[in-house]
Design brief:
Elements (H helix, E strand, L loop, with lengths): L9 E2 L5 E5 L2 H4 L12 H6 L17 H14 L4 E5 L2 H4 L9 H16 L3 E7 L5 H4 L7 H18 L5 E6 L1 H11 L9 H25 L3 E7 L3 E2 L3 H21 L4 H6 L13 H5 L5 E5 L4 E5 L15 E4 L14 H14 L5 E6 L7 E2 L2 E2 L2 H19 L4 E7 L18 E4 L4 E4 L1 H12 L1 E2 L2
Parallel strand pairs: 2-3, 2-14, 3-4, 4-5, 5-6, 6-8, 7-9, 8-11, 11-14
Antiparallel strand pairs: 1-17, 9-10, 12-13, 15-16
Helix pairs in contact: 3-5, 7-9, 8-9, 13-14
Bound molecules: ligand GBH.
Length: 454
């Protein structure tokens, strides 16, 4: 089928980095320990009806206490690099002002442990756990949050900058803005498209201000992670609308220093954009060293009269989101490796010159743990197809430097709670026992060969 990118041997470029990824709120637990303040995800997950079965990140994978074992497990799996996020409310419990040294101590210990095992850390400064105190003052709809974020970045760099080469600012500002402030399915659960556009801008401004701080402090490599998707459909206006909201509203400011004019125009019914001040786009568009790409699935749209707007995509009345007959993951997302080739090729063509890393790709399936084993052949096939698709993009000229599988282990899957499992490693939440799935053992071989066998 078109989804088979071949079955021959493929070898990745020398120095290609293979890693795994996680995020603080999804794995750490220890929500009330060592001076951590509350985040918007604590508030959201404790609000009845917001997260599947009332699950919270209070305990999660208990990684805060088990990080040594988890790092050793990663080393056993041959993982070369680890992408994790720092919890802002551990470091500044109120999001501003006093620094909590015990919060920094945790990441200090984690980073030393990683280096001790020869694993390269890649840090994300913000993977959605905004200090609640900042949300109480407007969160990302407020310019102040962008300024506080840059201060937090400087604090984090001050403690760990000597041991972490690659610093990324935000994970998926699309989710923070459109899911968090627009559709209300992520924290803080607001449902106001105008607020979502304000959040987009202040997230991007926070990125730019943080980049300036990190540069001034001497960071080796700085970047941002975006969740991008190829958009297809037979109506060019509908495709442009959704591509604008999903991809270009972030790519253009960061990599070209401007908002796309068509997106600005279409959003005028929700916002007058008065939060954009002179000079902001210069800050946001300052050069970065690496673009992190998270890819899960493509989006297909077509015109359908009377279709109500999808709350996730402001102004999308009359546009239907359609799914083909491709295989679906447990999230209901289409499996389409060729979408990754298409995406990487497009970004390389339209935004040349910035090295790329896949900072997340992976899938949830209905894993079964039986006799100490998870035979997750569907995840192996998924990863095999996507690794081949990434290799095809490199062959076509994409400057792709590394690949981080989401996720190292099963964890708190946001609104889905613990019901969806993305891990290479199975987690039994009652015992906290970790069991590498067959995919983890397969991935170890991929890393060892730096590629795939015929
Ligand atoms: C990422 O977000 C997060 O960074 C990570 O924390 C999370 O655990 C992981 O992915 C898995 O969810 O319904 O077919 O239109 C993923 C962002 C946004 C990707 C919605 C899929 C919908 C696909 N997702 N998108 S579809």
């Amino acid at each position: 089928s078109e989804e088979t990118a071949g079955t021959g041997e493929v070898i990745f470029p020398e120095g290609f980095v293979w890693g795994t990824a996680t995020a603080s709120y999804q794995i750490e637990g220890a929500a009330n320990e060592d001076g951590r303040g509350p985040s918007i995800w604590d508030t959201f997950s404790r609000t009845p009806g917001k997260v599947f079965a009332g699950h919270t990140g209070d305990v999660a994978c208990d990684h805060y206490h088990r990080y040594r074992d988890d790092v050793a497990m990663m080393a056993d799996l041959g993982v070369q690099a680890y992408r994790f996020s720092m919890a802002w409310p551990r470091i500044q419990p109120d999001g501003s002002g006093p620094v909590n040294p015990r919060g920094l101590d945790f990441y200090d210990r984690l980073v030393d442990e990683l280096h001790g095992h020869g694993i390269t850390p890649l840090v994300t400064l913000y993977h959605w756990d905004l200090p609640q105190a900042l949300e109480d003052r407007g969160g990302w709809t407020s310019r102040e949050t962008a300024e506080r974020f840059a201060e937090y970045a400087a604090v984090a760099y001050g403690r760990l900058g000597d041991r972490i080469a690659t610093w990324t600012t935000l994970n998926e500002p699309w989710c923070s803005s459109f899911l968090g402030y627009g559709a209300g399915v992520h924290a803080p659960g607001r449902t106001d498209p105008g607020a979502a556009f304000a959040a987009v801008h202040h997230l991007l401004l926070g990125h730019g201000l943080a980049v300036a701080e990190l540069r001034a402090a001497g960071a080796a490599q700085v970047g941002i992670t975006l969740n991008l998707a190829p958009i297809s459909g037979d109506d060019p206006e509908a495709v442009a609308h959704i591509d604008g909201l999903q991809n270009r509203i972030f790519l253009d400011p960061v990599l070209r220093g401007e908002y796309p004019a068509d997106v600005v125009e279409r959003a005028r019914r929700f916002t007058d954009w008065s939060f954009v001040r002179d000079g902001d786009l210069d800050i946001i568009g300052a050069p970065i060293d690496v673009l992190g790409v998270n890819y899960y699935s493509p989006t297909a749209v077509r015109l359908r009269a009377g279709q109500p707007a999808n709350p996730v995509h402001p102004g999308s009345e009359g546009i239907a989101f359609v799914q083909g007959d491709e295989e679906k993951t447990a999230m209901g997302w289409s499996v389409k490796p060729s979408g990754l080739t298409e995406l990487l090729t497009r970004v390389s063509r339209d935004y040349p010159g910035t090295p790329l890393i896949i900072t997340e790709n992976g899938a949830a399936f209905d894993d079964v743990l039986a006799d100490g084993r998870v035979a997750d052949e569907r995840r192996i096939a998924f990863l095999d197809g996507h690794f081949r698709a990434a290799h095809a993009a490199i062959a076509a000229g994409a400057d792709l430097r590394g690949y981080f599988v989401w996720s190292l282990m099963d964890n708190f899957e946001w609104a889905e709670g613990y019901a969806k499992r993305f891990g290479l490693v199975h987690v039994d939440y009652a015992s906290q026992r970790r069991t590498p799935k067959d995919s983890a053992l397969w991935y170890r071989e991929v890393i060892r060969r730096n590629g795939l066998q015929a």
